[in-house]
Specification:
- By secondary structure, the protein is mainly α.
- It has one domain.
- 84% of the residues lie in helices and 0% in strands.
- The protein has helices spanning 2-26, 33-62, 67-93, 102-122.
- Helix 1 runs antiparallel to helix 2 (33-62), helix 2 runs antiparallel to helix 3 and helix 3 (67-93) runs antiparallel to helix 4.
Length: 123
């Protein structure tokens, strides 16, 4: 399971950098300042949680049986999809209804960090 989260962290780090470059260079002329900021927020949280996935992978190498740690990793993955994904889609399409999904991703991020703390205390 450690390798899975290390892989997911690396892939998401790659995607965050690529999407950040796309936003800075490809969307600057197409989006207004507010929507570009929404896109950047998605990239920031995407990158931060890619690093969190790497931390989960490294911690699982030392605590392979930790159930809270595994759940933390999946919460981060789903959080990236829902939080950052909804912000990317909102900024590009302008569909305001997508904003309803964003808080669920944020809640998953919070759950992931709480589970990471539980894992650290139990180790």
């Amino acid at each position: 399971m450690s390798r899975v989260f290390l892989f997911l962290g690396a892939i998401n780090g790659f995607l965050a950098v690529g999407l950040g470059a796309f936003g800075a260079h490809g969307l600057r002329q197409r989006l207004d300042a507010a929507m570009l900021e929404v896109f950047r927020t998605g990239v920031d949280y995407h990158a931060m949680h890619a690093l969190a996935l790497l931390a989960v992978g490294l911690m699982l190498a030392h605590m392979p049986q930790s159930t809270p740690l595994k759940w933390a990793g999946w919460a981060f993955v789903l959080g990236i999809v829902l939080f950052s994904g909804s912000l990317y889609a909102l900024s590009i399409t302008g569909t305001r209804g997508l904003g309803i999904v964003t808080p669920f991703g944020g809640i998953l991020f919070l759950i992931g960090w709480a589970l990471l703390a539980v894992s650290a205390v139990r180790s």
